[in-house]
Design brief:
Blueprint lengths: L4 H51 L4 H6 L1 H14 L3 E5 L5 E4 L15 H7 L3 E2 L6 H4 L4 E9 L6 E10 L1 H51 L13 H36 L3 E6 L4 E4 L1 H7 L8 H7 L6 H9 L10 E5 L2 E11 L5 E10 L1 H36 L6 H32 L8 E4 H19 L2 E5 L7 E4 L1 H17 L6 E8 L3 E7 L7 H4 L11 H6 L6 H11 L3 E7 L3 E9 L2
Parallel strand pairs: 12-14
Antiparallel strand pairs: 1-2, 1-5, 3-4, 4-5, 6-7, 6-10, 8-9, 9-10, 11-13, 14-15, 15-17, 16-17
Helix pairs in contact: 1-3, 1-6, 6-7, 11-12, 12-17, 13-14, 14-17
The chain binds adenosine-5'-diphosphate.
Adenosine-5'-diphosphate binds next to helix 14 and helix 17.
Enzyme class: transferase
Protein name: histidine kinase
InterPro entries: BphY/WalK/GraS-like, HAMP_dom, HATPase_C_sf, HATPase_dom, His_kinase_dom, HisK_dim/P_dom, HisK_dim/P_sf, PAS
Length: 597
């Protein structure tokens, strides 16, 4: 059971008052008893001494003679004080007595008499401590033997008895007073202790109430009524509440800041507690892994994703200081995405591992770029190695004697020239792309009429068109100016690449339809061929560097696989758009659009 401090204080106060009253009362009673006893004892002794002196007895003969004198002395003594006086024979028999009880001839019954007879010395009845409790004696007795001067034997014993009821009456009256005083004192103590206890408990109750409110998040101040310890405690509490409020505000703003950061991060973040239970995951995480892969435990999530990481090992290694920092993280592929996972155990204030934070970075773009870079280097190496190998083998054959056969030598040299041209084209294309990539392409942007450039390019390609037996249809409004802003050399290059593709990839003599038209804002150039066409999956990759539907055919036609990539980059540099539609076996249409200037 919970006893309030108020009751404890009251009980302690009352107990202290009670104990004080009992102890002091006992002392007082003892003292009163003792004082009374001593006083009566002294009176009894002096009475006995007086009687002895009056008797003047020193031998048995004297006693017989002075029997009358004894009697008169006795009556005088009795008259002088209220004590009972007896003259006893050495065996305790009453010889004379001032009271009828015990009668003459009877043996005096007394606790002290046997000792007097044995020791032959005067004795007084010993008064026991707190005798009133048992009311053991109702008298106090002093016995004084008178000894024979010659034989030393007891002649007579003077026995003086006083009534003890006085002592008891006195003690009981004092006890009554003390009990009354104790009750009044306890009553006063109860009232004062209750008031005092209230003075302490009221502020404490207020503090308790406020601390409960504090725990519930309300930081109200408590009024201070005094400057004593309670006042100081209240002041400290108010200070603590104010500091706590500041800290809580700081923590909550820090928390919301952190939440905002976590939510707006491009990376997925998950936090697990010591037991490996998921305690936080930002929305990016759910987007990255999908709801089906997300679970509430570390051991369920990562094995499902095919990532072998032991949670316990991570924690253990961190606390042993064994963890080797894995800056690169663990790569994970999920569907068509790549994620880099970083596992970082976190500590509590005592330096013990508290859990693990997992950061997931979407590295799909880097991964793809990396892949493209690798493929690009491999492609470049391959594209350069092929003509170089050809040139080298032809050179060796020439050195080995083929040079003497002029016809073969000329044939070889023309192959070597073709390969050298291919290499030059390749290197030029690569340089062009690198300039575009590094934003070093200098464009000489001027107003121009696209119709003129189209006509010039067709004219320049005419020889190849005719050589292949293709028919070319050029369609444009001669009266109209297809005015745009552009670098004429680059526009020419765009047209050249598109047109030469149409020529290259039309095997049977076909028709190449070049159409130019314009609406108020857009100039459209369409090059349509009746060539081999491109299948849909290849069409999606057509602008990739080094992508070729048929490598051998492209190479035989002097292609590098870079033409359309350069075209796309250049069209975009002119803020234009390019699109290709195609049907295998039917033909391809390339559409380029520029803004009217
Ligand atoms: P290449 O130097 O090989 O011609 P391009 O980048 O110009 O490189 O073209 C990439 C690939 O697209 C070619 O290898 C070819 O397979 C295909 N291609 C381009 N234009 C046409 C077209 N008009 N008809 C059919 N296939 C084409």
């Amino acid at each position: 059971m919970r006893t309030s401090i108020q009751w404890k204080i009251v009980v302690i106060y009352l107990s202290v008052v009670f104990v004080i009253m009992v102890v002091s009362g006992s002392f007082i009673i003892c003292n009163i008893e003792d004082t009374h006893y001593e006083k009566i004892k002294r009176e009894l002794m002096s009475s006995a001494e007086t009687i002895e002196g009056r008797l003047g007895v020193s031998s048995g003969a004297d006693f017989e003679e002075s029997m009358d004198k004894v009697e008169s002395t006795l009556s005088t003594m009795v008259a002088l004080n209220q004590h009972a006086i007896y003259i006893l024979a050495p065996n305790g028999e009453v010889l004379l007595g001032s009271k009828s009880e015990p009668a003459v001839g009877e043996i005096m019954v007394s606790d002290v008499l046997p000792e007097v007879i044995a020791k032959k010395t005067p004795q007084t009845l010993e008064w026991p401590l707190f005798a009133y409790k048992e009311a053991k004696y109702d008298y106090i007795e002093h016995d004084r033997p008178i000894l024979d001067a010659t034989t030393g034997e007891i002649l007579v014993i003077i026995c003086v008895r006083a009534d003890a009821t006085d002592i008891y009456d006195n003690v009981f009256s004092v006890m009554k007073t003390i009990t009354l005083a104790a009750m009044i004192a306890m009553g006063i103590a109860a009232v004062f202790s209750a008031i005092f206890a209230r003075m302490i408990t009221v502020p404490i109750k207020q503090l308790t109430k406020s601390s409960k409110q504090l725990a519930a998040g309300s930081f109200s101040r408590i009024p201070i009524y005094s400057e004593d310890e309670i006042g100081q405690l209240t002041q400290s509490f108010n200070y603590m509440a104010a500091e706590l409020s500041k800290t809580m505000t700081a923590i909550s703003s820090e928390k919301s800041k952190l939440e905002k950061i976590l939510e707006n991060m491009a990376d997925g973040v998950m936090a697990f507690n010591r037991q490996g239970v998921l305690i936080h995951a930002n929305s990016v995480c759910y987007e990255m892994l999908g709801n089906t892969n997300m679970d509430h435990r570390f051991d369920f999530i990562f094995p499902k994703l095919g990532v072998e990481v032991s949670f316990d090992k991570l924690l253990a290694e961190e606390s042993n200081g064994e963890r080797v920092k894995n800056e690169e993280g663990i790569m994970m592929a999920l569907e068509d995405k790549f994620y880099n996972l970083h596992f970082a155990p976190y500590m509590n204030a005592r330096g013990e591992s508290e859990g693990v934070v997992v950061v997931m970075q979407d590295v799909t773009t880097q991964q793809k770029l990396d892949q493209m870079r690798k493929e690009f280097v491999a492609n470049v190496s391959h594209e350069l190695r092929t003509p170089l190998t050809t040139v080298k083998s032809y050179t060796e054959t020439l050195i080995d004697g083929a040079i003497d056969d002029r016809e073969i030598a000329m044939q070889f040299l023309s192959v070597m020239e073709k390969e050298a041209d291919r290499m030059t084209t390749l290197v030029q294309d690569l340089l062009e792309l690198s300039r575009i990539d590094n934003k070093q392409m200098q464009l000489d942007m001027r107003p121009l009429d696209l119709k003129e450039i189209v006509k010039e390019t067709i004219e320049a390609q005419k020889i190849h068109i005719e050589k292949k037996g293709h028919r070319i249809i050029y369609e444009a409004d001669e009266e109209m100016i297809y005015n745009m802003i552009g670098d004429s050399a680059r526009i020419r290059q765009i047209l050249h690449n598109i047109l030469s593709n149409a020529i290259k990839y039309s095997i049977d003599p076909g028709t190449i339809h070049v159409k130019l038209y314009k609406n108020p804002n857009i100039i459209t150039l369409q090059v349509k061929d009746t060539g081999i066409g491109i299948a849909k999956p290849d069409l999606e990759r057509i602008f990739e560097r080094f992508f070729r539907v048929d490598k051998a055919r492209s190479r035989s036609q002097g292609g590098t696989g870079l033409g359309l990539s350069i075209v796309k980059e250049m069209v975009e540099l002119h803020h234009g758009k390019i699109s290709i539609t195609s049907k295998p076996g039917k033909g391809t249409t390339v559409t380029v659009q520029f803004n009217v200037s």
